[in-house]
Each structure stands twice: as structure tokens, then as C-alpha cells.
Specification:
35% helix; elongated; Rossmann fold; formyl-coa transferase, domain 3; six-stranded parallel sheet; alpha/beta; 2 domains; 13% strand; three-stranded antiparallel sheet
């Protein structure tokens, strides 16, 4: 039995953060009913601009497979009446409208919880439900700019800001929302009957993702610095180095690890050269915190140039030094990923046709005794409207 079987989620979210949250719940067995607007539905379907995909663009498939799609016009009395009937049967309601819009549609927490007191109501927004910024629009990279995340990429303090190379805020917000909803369901399971209204924002998720830097600034007053591809500890052995055929990233953070790395490189004297490293930790497991410098790096760069990334990875791993060749996403998925416990599930058929099996990521973790499962295919726009509404009478 999957942990959320029997839980019904009414999903009024679109694009990425909200749908990713309900995707997590769906992968754990919840019945997620995705409410979509007439016409184009969720914008990520891309019906107008990519008609050849028939509303099943890869980004949509990845986080909406297994859900049921119901088309309702929430501006009509009939649409709102249908939503109210659905809410009466649900455990969770999730929306990511701009703050205030749900209330204008008659879908405020107070209204819906008057119809269903046990309902867990989750609002996802850019800036939160209260405060002077609440009404501001938001997208991932705008929040990266607003929260300081863009100022952290790269190693040149004078370089232009740079966003993270994937929508980290949207995904982080979706994870945070799913976690909050699970906490709400646990409260209900323990008999808590108080109203549960969750306020999950992209700015809070961003701060949480940068939690160490936030704490450092609040507690010490020190602003975080750009460190580029160097490890956050600041060890000279925790960095990314060019090799004979590419790049390798290493994490020789402790004295023991750094000594092992230098031995593998054939340069054990680097550790004891006082002109390069005038001080060292007192114990083998002490971190070489903030001891990285250009002189040491130059010596390590010369050494790493003598062999390939794969060869160094094998040698360093055997010596107990965390290291990996720098991969592309495809080379990781076709290589190392296939050797892990994996966190994906199979679709019953490829959404775009063809004989090749299609897979999507599941909830991202594994259970003891879990067996592989196949999730339902991604829904066509409005595919389940008649089915769901007939169940409501």
C-alpha cells in the first residue's frame, strides 16, 4: 500500500512549483484531481505553440502523470458549484493563484473549510500571503534575484549576477509545500480538528535553500562570498580542476583526505611545503577551512593535467577521496544513475507514441520493501471531467 492511498487532493495549481508539490503527493498514492481552465489548460501543456505534442509536453508529463484532469470554468456558477462538491470529498486543497484571487473566486480558506472542516488548505505564492510584497508577481529567476541567490554563482565578485542553471526555487517550493501538506495530514491523523491553512512562498523556500548562509549572516554579520566551483569549506583540495580531457571535482576537505589526494597526484610534498600551506589542522580529520590559495591551486592544476578525468576519479575514489568527473545530465543518467537504487517509475505507454518505454522521476526516495510501480499516464486536457463530475452526481 502506498502511504497516501485514500487521500484526495484538489489541485488548482499550474506551471511548476504547485504541480511539483502535488506530483510528490500523487507519487505517494494520493488521488490528485487537477483542475484546468477551458481552452489551453495548464500553460506547460503548450497546446497553442507546440500542437504536435498534443498537450503532453515533456515538462508537463514529468510532474502531472497519474493525475486526473478536470476542466472547469471557475468564473461561472456551475464551475464553482462543481469545485464545492469536490472540496466536500477532499482532504487537501492546493492553489497557487496570486494572493487574493482565490477569495475573489469564492475559494477562500474560510469558505472551503466551512464546507469541509477537515480540509487542509495550502496556498503557494511568490512572496507569501501577507505583507507589502504579497501582490507582486514572481517567477523563479526573479526570486533568485530578489533573495540574493543570483549573487552567489561564480567566483569573480565583480562579475554579473548569474542564476542557478535549473528552476531551483520552483522545485524547492514544491518540495516545501509537499512537506507542509504531509505535516498537515499527520496532524489530522493524530486527531487535530483545528483549521489548517498553509502559506508556502518562493521567498521562504529560497531562504531555506540558502539556510547556512542566512545563519552565517545573522549570527556573524559576514556576507557570503562567491566561491565558484570551490567547496564551501574552503579547502585547497575541494575544488574543480581541468584534466587531460575534461574536468574533475574533488572534496578533499580533511587533512587525511588532502594527504591522500596529493599522494595519488604524485605530489605529497605539497602538504608539507610551508610556503604553500603555512598552517594545517592539528588532527587528521580536521578541515582545511579557508586554506585554499592560488599557489596551491596552480600546483594541483599542473598535476591533474597529467591524466584523464575518469582515471583520476578511479584513483581518488580508491584512496577514499570523494571525487567525480564532471558529467553532463545525459552522461549521468546513462551512466552512474543506472547503477544507483534509482528513483523513477514507468509510464504504461510513451505519451508521444513509439515503442520505447517512458520513465519519470517519482517522489525521489525509496521505502524498505518497495517494489517498482507504474504510474498512470499523463492526462489529456479535461480527460476526466465527465468521470469525476458523474461521481459527484
Amino acid at each position: 500500500m502506498r502511504p497516501l492511498e485514500g487521500i484526495r487532493v484538489i489541485d488548482l495549481t499550474h506551471v511548476l512549483a504547485g504541480p511539483f508539490a502535488t506530483h510528490q503527493l500523487c507519487m505517494m498514492g494520493a488521488d490528485v484531481i487537477k483542475i484546468e481552465r477551458p481552452g489551453d489548460g495548464d500553460q506547460t501543456r503548450g497546446l497553442a505553440l507546440r500542437p504536435e505534442l498534443k498537450g503532453l509536453a515533456p515538462g508537463f508529463v514529468a510532474i502531472n502523470s497519474g493525475k486526473r484532469s478536470v476542466v472547469l470554468d471557475l468564473k461561472t456558477e456551475e464551475g464553482r458549484a462543481a469545485i464545492e462538491k469536490l472540496v466536500a470529498t477532499a482532504d487537501v486543497f492546493v492553489e497557487n493563484f496570486r494572493p487574493g484571487k482565490a477569495a475573489k473566486l469564492g475559494l477562500s480558506p474560510q469558505r472551503l473549510q466551512s464546507l469541509n472542516p477537515r480540509l487542509i488548505y495550502c496556498s503557494i505564492s511568490g512572496w507569501g500571503q501577507i505583507g507589502p510584497n504579497a501582490a507582486r508577481p514572481a517567477y523563479d529567476h526573479v526570486i533568485q534575484a530578489a533573495t540574493g541567490m543570483m549573487s552567489l554563482q561564480g567566483d569573480d565578485p565583480d562579475a554579473p549576477p548569474m542564476k542557478v542553471g535549473f528552476p531551483v526555487i520552483d522545485i524547492g517550493t514544491g518540495m516545501l509545500a509537499a512537506e507542509a501538506i504531509l505535516a498537515g495530514l499527520l496532524r489530522r491523523a493524530r486527531g487535530d480538528t483545528a483549521p489548517i491553512v498553509l502559506d508556502v512562498s518562493m521567498v521562504d523556500a529560497s531562504a531555506l535553500l540558502m539556510g547556512g548562509m542566512v545563519a552565517n549572516y545573522w549570527l556573524s554579520g559576514a556576507a557570503p562570498r562567491r566561491v565558484g566551483n570551490r567547496g564551501f569549506v574552503g579547502s585547497p583540495g575541494a575544488d574543480t580542476f581541468p584534466t587531460a580531457d575534461g574536468w574533475i571535482s574533488t572534496a578533499a576537505n580533511t587533512l587525511r583526505q588532502f594527504q591522500a589526494m596529493c599522494r595519488v597526484l604524485g605530489r605529497p610534498e605539497i602538504v608539507t611545503d610551508k610556503t604553500l600551506l603555512p598552517r594545517l589542522p592539528d588532527t587528521p580529520d580536521g578541515f582545511l577551512s579557508d586554506l585554499g590559495n592560488k599557489a596551491v591551486r596552480d600546483q594541483l592544476v599542473k598535476a591533474f593535467a597529467g591524466d584523464t578525468s575518469a582515471a583520476w576519479e578511479e584513483k581518488l575514489t580508491a584512496a577514499g577521496v570523494p571525487a567525480s568527473k564532471v558529467h553532463t545530465v545525459p552522461s549521468y543518467l546513462d551512466g552512474h544513475y543506472m547503477q544507483t537504487g534509482r528513483a523513477d517509475c514507468e509510464l504504461p505507454a510513451h505519451p508521444l507514441g513509439g515503442d520505447a518505454p517512458a520513465r519519470i522521476l517519482n517522489e525521489g526516495f525509496r521505502w524498505t520493501g518497495e517494489v517498482a510501480f507504474s504510474i498512470g499516464r499523463p492526462p489529456r486536457l479535461g480527460e476526466h471531467t465527465d468521470e469525476v463530475l458523474k461521481q459527484l452526481g
